[in-house]
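An instance as discussed:

___
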Amino acid sequence: MQQTFYKYQGTGNDFVMIDNRQLSFNKKDTKRIAFLCDRRFGVGADGLILLENHLELDFKMVYYNADGNESTMCGNGGRCLVAFAKQLGIVSTKAVFEAVDGIHHATIESNDIIKLQMQDVDTVENHDSHMFLNTGSPHHVQHEDQIEYFDIKNKGAKIRYGVPYNNEGTNVNFVKKLTDDTFRVRTYERGVEDETLSCGTGVTAVAVAMHNTGETKKNHVMLQVEGGKLQVSFDVDNNVYKNIWLIGPATYVFEGKI
């Protein structure tokens, strides 16, 4: 079967986008989803996203990791899907859609900048060596001064599959503080099982964790990832992080048939 697809990327975090408003895509075919994400035999991407109709909102987001399995929320993927919806003529400057973790609002600004509102965070676990929190996806956050030369894939995999994450696993973020409001982040993503150039829910987790632990007092944080720069802003009310916005570019790359 011939499949029309669109390729988008957000700071190097890339996705195969499919317009599934007619529900023609077989969502149970995990092998085909993994094939489309394969960088040697398929299109190549960190994940695949379906855009579907929603009865009340602008659209629905269904996200799959590169391994073919449906997954938790993807921040950069959500931003790219908003850009895709604009290309399809579904939205213009604002969007409201449903993802696996709930309803998201987004705004479309100039120069391909998409602002995506993330879910509130009411729990940040502070441990001796790391922090853990859920920003739509689970994230382990830890400091790493030698981040430039750190073995992200192997060290990340060890944490991802280790105690206490054995069953569900987690995404793993390594962080280096650069200034009072700027952090460098490298992320190992579960489902991709490797380092990705950027992770939206990951930088959101880092920004919240760094504020929660006093590493920054700013509520607008800059994140430098391997694929570019992202921003996260938020409000704090009784230790609950609200009005969280993930901000950055979402870029159309190409489209085709496979």
User: Anything to note?
Assistant: Residues 40 and 207 are 34 Å apart (CA to CA).
